[in-house]
Automatic annotation (TrEMBL):
Enzyme Commission number(s): 6.3.5.1
PROSITE patterns hit by this protein: CN_HYDROLASE
This protein's GO CC annotations: cytoplasm
Pathway: Cofactor biosynthesis; NAD(+) biosynthesis; NAD(+) from deamido-NAD(+) (L-Gln route): step 1/1
UniProt GO BP: NAD+ biosynthetic process
Broad class of enzyme this protein falls into: ligase
Descriptive protein name: Glutamine-dependent NAD(+) synthetase
Keywords: ATP-binding, Ligase, NAD, Nucleotide-binding
A single GO molecular function term of this UniProt record: glutaminase activity
CN hydrolase domain boundaries: 5-273
Length: 702
C-alpha cells in the first residue's frame, strides 16, 4: 500500500502575446514545483501565447512562436525530471486545434487537442479552432525545429491516456468538464488515476461554486482531479480567477487564491494513488468499466510515485473545505486585481474618476482604493514584481513604507464637477470626504461656465432657448440641457486626466467609468457622457450588488463615509432642484433597480423574449401585480431597452462580472435598431382579454 505522488498545478498571470513574460512565468512555476518535489506540473489552457488572443489565434506567427517558446521551456535545465503539461495552439493537417503538449526530459510525449470547445458568452473558440474528434488518434509530425531539438519526428496526437511506470493520467481541457458527457468519465472508467484540467476560466460573481462542484463531482467515483487556471487581465474585459486546485475522491486537498497580485502561484500536494482503489470498488462501476472505450495508451518510462516506506516523512494532503468569497468581497477584489494588471501593463500613470457623490462613482473609487490596499499588502509580503511596478508608478520613490492612502494619492485623482444651482452641498461634500478618506487627490470645480457657453451658443445659433421641465420646457429640451452638462463633464474628465501633474505615464491618467449593468440595460445614461471612459470596473455589476459592496466596504475598509452614500437617494442632479422636485433615478427610469436585475436575467440568461418574460412574471409577481400590470411593466422595460440599445455599441469596455451583461461589443450580440414589438403586444393583449372574459364569466356563474 502507498503510492505517493507529489504533483503540482499552478495559476499564471499570462498576458496575450507576451511570449517572453509567459515563458518566464511558466519556467518559474516549474522551478517552484520541482523545489517542492513534484513529478508532474499542470499549467493553464493556452498558457504559452496566453488565452485571450482572440483573432490572433488565426495568425501563423502565434503557432510558430508558441513552439519556439515550448522549445525554450523543455530544453531548460530547470525543466527536467518532471512531466510538464503545456498549452498552445496546434496545427495538424492544416487544421488548428487548442492543444496540450506533454513533455518530459526534453522530449515530447504526445499532444492532446481539445475536444469540446467553449463558444458561449465571451468565448469564441470555434472561431479559431476546430474541435478534435473524440477517440481519434493520429500521428503528428513535429515542427522541424522541434525535431532537431528532440530527435523525434512524430508523436501521437489525440484522445489518449498516459501511462507512466506506476501511474495513469489523462488530459481534460476546461470546457470539457462543463459538458454533460465529459471525457474524464471514460478515462476514469479506463482506470486513469489523475485527470489534468487546464483552464482559461473567467471570474463571474457567484460562479466558483459551480466550478468546484463540477470538479469534486468529477472525482467522487475515485480519482485525482487537478485544475489549473489563468489569472488576471490578459488584455481584455475578463479577469481569470485562478483557484487552481487538487481534489481526490470528491474532496479538495489544495486550492489556490482566487484574487491576488501574484503572477505565479504553484499549488503542490502529495496524494496516495492507492486511496483511489477503495473509492472505485462498486460493481456497478466495474460493469460500466468493462464496456468503456479502449483508449490508446502512451507509455512513459518514468516513475511518478514513491512508496510510503521509502519516504515515511512525506505528508499526505488532507481534505480541506473550499474557500469562497462573499459576492461583496468578489466585487472588491476581482475588479481591483484587473485594474492593477491594466494599469501596470498599459504603463499609464494612474486613474481618474469623475466623482459625483453618488453610489456608482463611489463604487469605482472604492475599487481603486481596494487595488491600492492589495498593492500595499503585496509590497509588505515582498512581492518583487509588485514592488517594481509600484515604484515605477511612484516615480522611483521608496514604496516600502507607504500606506494604501499614500499610494492612492500617487496614482488616483478624482474630481467633482458641479453646477452652482443643481449640485447639492451633500453630493459635493460626500465626494470630497470620500476622496480624503481614501487618500485620492481631489478637484472641486463648477462647470456652469461650460454649460452656459454651450447653451448660449446653441440658443443663439438656433434662435431658441431650451428650458428645463421645471421651468416649463418640453421633455426634449429638458434632456438636451441635462446632456450639455453630462457631456461637458466627459470632456473635462479627459482634460484633467491628461494634464494633471500626476499624468506622467504614457497616455496620462486613464479615465474610469461608473455606469452599472442595470443602467446600461435600461439605457439610463447619456451617450458620450462620463459613461464613456477608458475602462469601467463596475460596468458588469448590478446596482443591488454595488450597494451591498459599499455597505461591506464601509467596515472592511474602515470608511465610515460610505454609509452616507448608501443613505442618499440616487439622483443624477441634472435638473434644477425646486421646493417640490428633486430628480430621482428610479422615478426617472420608470422602474426599480431590483426589477431591472430581474428583466436582465430573464432576457439574457433565461433567453426570454417579451412574451415569455410576461408569462413568467405573471407567476413570479402574482402576489404584487395583476397580469395587466405586469404587461405594462414588461412592455415599458422592452421599450426603453429597444430605444437605447444603440448605446451598448459604444459602451465603455467593462470588467465582465455578471451573466446578464448587455455589452454589445463582445458578450451580448443583438441588433441596435428595433421595431416596436407589436406582434408580442397583440398576443399578450388577446390573452389578457381572454382572462378578463373568463373572470367575468366566472363571476356571472356565481
Ligand atoms: N436608433 C438609434 N441609433 C443610433 N443612435 C441613436 C438612435 N436613437 C437615438 N440615437 C442617438 O442617441 C441620442 C439620445 O441619447 P442620449 O443623447 O444619450 O440622450 P437620452 O437617452 O435621450 O437622454 C439621456 C437620459 O439619461 C439620463 N441620465 C443622464 C446622465 C446620467 C444619468 C444617471 O443618473 O445615470 C442619467 C437622463 O436623465 C436622460 O433621461 C440621440 O440624440 C441620437 O444622437
Ligand atoms: N457633479 C459631478 N461631478 C463629477 N462627476 C459627475 C458629476 N455628476 C455626474 N458625474 C459623473 O457622471 C457619471 C454619471 O452620472 P450620474 O451621477 O448622473 O449617474 P450615476 O450612474 O447614478 O452615478 P453616481 O451614482 O456616481 O452618481 C457619474 O458616475 C460620475 O462619474
Ligand atoms: N476556456 C473554457 O473552455 C471555458 C469553460 C467554461 N465555460 C468556464 O467558464 O470555465
Amino acid at each position: 500500500m502507498g503510492r505517493l505522488a507529489t504533483i503540482s498545478t499552478c495559476q499564471l498571470d499570462q498576458w496575450a502575446l507576451d511570449f517572453d513574460g509567459n515563458r518566464d512565468r511558466i519556467l518559474e512555476a516549474i522551478r517552484q514545483a520541482k523545489a517542492a518535489g513534484s513529478k508532474l506540473i499542470l499549467t493553464p489552457e493556452l498558457c504559452i501565447p496566453g488565452y485571450g488572443l482572440l483573432d490572433h489565434f488565426q495568425e501563423l506567427d502565434t503557432f510558430t512562436h508558441s513552439w519556439e517558446v515550448l522549445a525554450e521551456i523543455i530544453s531548460s535545465p530547470d525543466a527536467q525530471d518532471i512531466i510538464i503539461d503545456l498549452g498552445l495552439p496546434i496545427r495538424h493537417n492544416d487544421v488548428p486545434h487548442n492543444g496540450r503538449v506533454l513533455a518530459l526530459n526534453g522530449k515530447i510525449l504526445a499532444i492532446r487537442p481539445k475536444i469540446d470547445l467553449c463558444n458561449d458568452g465571451n468565448y469564441r473558440e470555434m472561431r479559431y479552432f476546430t474541435p478534435w474528434t473524440r477517440y481519434r488518434v493520429d500521428s503528428y509530425t513535429l515542427p522541424h525545429e522541434i525535431q532537431e531539438l528532440t530527435g523525434q519526428t512524430e508523436v501521437p496526437i489525440g484522445d489518449i491516456i498516459f501511462q507512466t511506470l506506476d501511474a495513469t493520467f489523462a488530459s481534460e481541457l476546461c470546457e470539457e468538464l462543463w459538458t454533460p458527457d465529459s471525457p474524464h468519465i471514460q478515462y476514469s472508467l479506463n482506470g486513469a488515476e489523475i485527470i489534468l484540467n487546464s483552464s482559461g476560466s473567467h471570474h463571474e460573481l457567484r460562479k466558483l461554486d459551480t466550478r468546484i462542484n463540477l470538479i469534486t463531482n468529477a472525482s467522487k467515483s475515485g480519482g485525482v482531479y487537478m485544475y489549473s487556471n489563468q489569472k488576471g487581465c490578459d488584455g481584455d474585459r475578463l479577469y481569470y480567477d485562478g483557484c487552481s486546485l487538487i481534489a481526490i475522491n470528491g474532496q479538495m486537498v489544495a486550492q489556490g487564491s482566487q484574487f491576488s497580485l501574484r503572477d505565479v502561484e504553484v499549488i503542490t500536494s502529495t496524494v496516495d494513488l492507492d486511496d483511489i482503489w477503495s473509492a472505485r470498488q462498486s460493481r456497478s462501476r466495474g460493469m460500466q468499466a468493462m464496456k468503456a472505450h479502449d483508449f490508446t495508451r502512451v507509455k512513459i518510462d518514468f516513475a511518478m510515485t514513491v512508496k510510503t516506506r521509502s519516504n515515511p516523512k512525506l505528508r499526505i494532503a488532507e481534505a480541506i473545505k473550499p474557500r469562497y468569497h462573499k459576492p461583496e468581497e468578489e466585487i472588491a477584489l476581482g475588479p481591483a486585481c484587473w485594474l492593477w494588471d491594466y494599469l501596470r501593463r498599459s504603463t499609464a500613470a494612474g486613474y481618474f474618476v469623475p466623482l459625483s457623490g453618488g453610489i456608482d462613482s463611489c463604487a469605482t473609487a472604492t475599487i481603486v482604493f481596494s487595488m491600492c490596499r492589495l498593492v500595499i499588502a503585496a509590497i509588505k509580503e515582498g512581492d518583487e514584481q509588485v514592488i517594481k511596478d509600484a515604484t515605477r508608478l511612484c516615480s522611483g520613490d521608496d514604496v516600502s513604507k507607504m500606506s494604501a492612502q499614500d499610494f492612492c494619492g500617487r496614482v488616483f485623482n478624482t474630481a467633482f464637477m458641479g453646477m452652482k444651482e443643481q449640485s447639492s452641498k451633500e453630493t459635493r461634500g460626500r465626494a470630497e470626504q470620500l476622496a480624503n478618506a481614501i487618500g485620492a487627490q481631489h478637484i472641486d470645480c463648477n462647470i456652469d461656465e461650460v454649460f452656459n457657453a454651450v447653451k448660449n451658443l446653441v440658443s443663439n445659433t438656433l434662435d431658441f432657448t431650451p428650458r428645463f421641465k421645471v421651468h416649463g420646457g418640453e421633455p426634449g429640451e429638458n434632456i438636451a440641457l441635462q446632456n450639455f452638462q453630462s457631456r461637458s463633464r466627459m470632456i473635462l474628465s479627459y482634460a484633467f486626466a491628461q494634464l494633471l501633474p500626476t499624468s506622467k505615464g504614457r497616455g496620462g491618467l486613464l479615465v474610469l467609468g461608473s455606469a452599472n449593468v442595470d443602467e446600461a440595460l435600461r439605457g439610463y445614461l447619456t451617450k458620450y457622457d462620463c459613461s464613456s471612459a477608458d475602462i469601467n470596473p463596475i460596468g458588469g455589476i448590478s446596482k443591488t450588488d454595488l450597494i451591498s459592496f459599499i455597505a461591506w466596504a464601509e467596515h472592511a475598509f474602515e470608511l465610515p463615509i460610505l454609509q452616507e452614500f448608501i443613505d442618499a437617494t440616487p439622483t443624477a442632479e441634472l435638473e434644477p432642484i425646486t421646493d417640490d422636485y428633486v430628480q430621482s433615478d428610479e422615478v426617472d427610469m420608470g422602474m426599480t433597480y431590483k426589477e431591472l436585475s430581474v428583466y436582465g436575467y430573464l432576457r439574457k440568461v433565461r433567453k426570454f423574449g417579451l412574451y415569455s418574460m410576461w408569462e413568467k412574471l405573471c407567476v413570479d409577481w402574482r402576489d404584487q401585480y395583476t397580469p395587466g400590470e405586469v404587461y405594462t411593466k414588461v412592455r415599458r422595460f422592452m421599450w426603453f431597452y429597444a430605444i437605447n440599445r444603440h448605446k451598448m455599441t459604444t459602451i465603455t469596455p467593462a470588467y465582465y462580472a455578471e451573466q446578464y451583461a448587455p455589452d454589445d461589443n463582445r458578450f451580448d450580440l443583438r441588433p441596435f435598431l428595433y421595431p416596436s414589438f407589436t406582434f408580442a403586444h397583440r398576443k399578450i393583449e388577446n390573452e389578457l382579454k381572454t382572462m378578463e372574459e373568463g373572470e367575468a364569466g366566472n363571476a356571472g356563474e356565481k
